[in-house]
Structure to design on (493 residues):
């Protein structure tokens, strides 16, 4: 019964995320971008800036706490009140930095308001994630799943009404209103999650341990450095585009990147399973590390390869389904970002393993290399790019950066844990790639040799079903192995 409950809760969580998060991006976010036009480019640029600055009120504490919760939940519980009080101090520091930013730069009042709103949003998101680390540790899976999508459910309901249902006079929407509504959704989610934490953990908010707070900052600093470096080489593209290219190019880049964000949300679900398992295996059963790594690689990288082929052959048609104003280069931008996503998926696997092992020096050095490579190439290629080609240049740089970092992390995992990719797995990757390409060739041969007319959306749906079938056919998805994997995770608890 316990096992059945675990599976039902896991699939409940995955199902909720599969339904809600893509809807928030493609039904709401895309509609907003269509409504506000190039102003979305400003939104996207400063949203990425807020992600970079958010390290000021986290300092790597979340990652440290997740690791501790996986290994010793009772000790993690004792940190709740201290972390929350520390976060309040750090929020004051963050707001002070933003005030200084206004006086030291020439940004507009709209841009400044967006930065403030996004900053508060990131503070709320960080604390929601902190609360959820305890929900998972306490096996409160359904509530955790509900909290993981609550902000987006609220956003879909509110924005869905304003965009599609409200009388004409209420349908006016600008990027500032959108940001404020997001803030309100996060705030309500934060409140509900906080009530849940108090109910389950019952922390002593009046007795924070200041010595513990100091110790946590010192202990979490390597994690903080890693997070800021990873965020820099992943999220700086939009900021550089805003400063050296037309704002419309930021919008084109955002269209494709929002699809990457959607896929990354799902990849993070699997990464959330991996990290505590790696932490436990390193401590108790190192021989199983290679098995788990290969299982994760074939599932996550196999799915990523499907996305790469899709973006190459049908990316433009997909973006045209959701966005009114796309670039002639939109499909090419999405293809290079799909290669970047392949690298990001690899980093979720090998980066999680290195983090669980405490190999933060390796991760920080590889991330420093990623930052230097990303900033130099972006600065050079975006400025050198012809008009309206800056977004494509940024996408190419993202692919180069993420794949380079992925190779470095893969190399060190081989050296530390002797993890080899079997030839059979490489052959299956090749087979999957060839079959996906043959599928598209077959579709176009049928279309050109007959009078049959198939819409782009129909081809996309057909590709999705064929891809899932091929994942099973080539053994990238093995239900028995997934079952064993989940059983191991449950046993570790």
């Amino acid at each position: 019964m316990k096992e059945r409950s675990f599976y039902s809760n896991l699939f409940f969580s995955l199902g909720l995320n599969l339904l809600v998060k893509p809807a928030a991006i493609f039904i709401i976010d895309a509609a907003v971008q269509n409504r506000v036009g190039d102003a979305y480019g400003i939104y996207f640029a400063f949203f990425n800036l807020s992600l970079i600055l958010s390290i000021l009120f986290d300092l790597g504490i979340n990652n440290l706490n997740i690791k501790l919760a996986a290994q010793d939940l009772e000790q993690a519980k004792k940190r709740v009140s201290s972390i929350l009080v520390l976060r309040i101090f750090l929020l004051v520091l963050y707001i002070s930095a933003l005030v200084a930013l206004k006086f030291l730069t020439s940004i507009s009042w709209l841009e400044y308001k967006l930065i403030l709103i996004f900053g508060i949003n990131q503070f709320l998101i960080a604390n929601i994630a902190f609360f959820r680390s305890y929900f998972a540790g306490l096996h409160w899976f359904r509530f955790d799943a509900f909290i993981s999508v609550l902000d987006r459910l609220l956003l879909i309901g509110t924005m869905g009404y304003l965009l599609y249902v409200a009388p004409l006079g209420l349908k006016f929407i600008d990027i500032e209103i959108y940001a404020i509504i997001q803030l309100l959704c996060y705030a309500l989610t934060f409140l509900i999650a906080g009530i849940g934490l108090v109910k389950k953990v019952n922390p002593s908010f009046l007795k924070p341990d200041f010595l513990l707070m100091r110790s946590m900052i010192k202990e979490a600093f390597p994690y903080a450095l890693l997070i800021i470096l990873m965020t820099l080489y992943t999220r700086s593209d939009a900021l550089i585009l805003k400063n050296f290219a037309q704002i419309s190019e930021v919008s084109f880049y955002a269209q494709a990147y929002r699809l990457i964000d959607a896929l990354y949300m799902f990849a993070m679900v699997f990464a959330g399973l991996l990290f505590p398992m790696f932490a436990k295996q390193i401590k108790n059963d190192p021989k199983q590390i290679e098995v788990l790594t290969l299982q994760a690689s074939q599932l996550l990288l196999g799915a990523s390869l499907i996305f790469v082929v899709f973006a190459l052959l049908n990316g433009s048609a997909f973006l045209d389904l959701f966005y009114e104003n796309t670039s002639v280069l939109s499909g090419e931008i999405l293809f290079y970002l799909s290669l970047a996503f392949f690298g990001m998926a690899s980093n979720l696997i090998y980066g999680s393993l290195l983090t669980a092992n405490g190999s933060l020096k390796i991760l920080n050095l590889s991330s420093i290399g990623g930052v230097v490579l990303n900033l130099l190439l972006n600065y050079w290629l975006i400025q050198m790019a012809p008009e309206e080609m800056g977004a494509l240049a940024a996408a190419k740089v993202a692919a180069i950066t993420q794949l380079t970092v992925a190779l470095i992390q893969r190399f060190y995992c081989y050296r530390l844990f002797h993890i080899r990719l079997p030839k059979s797995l490489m052959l299956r990757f090749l087979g999957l790639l060839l079959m996906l390409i043959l599928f598209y060739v077959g579709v176009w041969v049928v279309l050109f040799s007959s009078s049959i007319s198939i819409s782009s959306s129909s081809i996309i749906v057909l590709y999705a079903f064929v891809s899932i079938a091929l994942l099973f056919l080539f053994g990238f998805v093995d239900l028995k192995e997934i079952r064993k994997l989940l059983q191991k995770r449950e046993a570790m608890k």
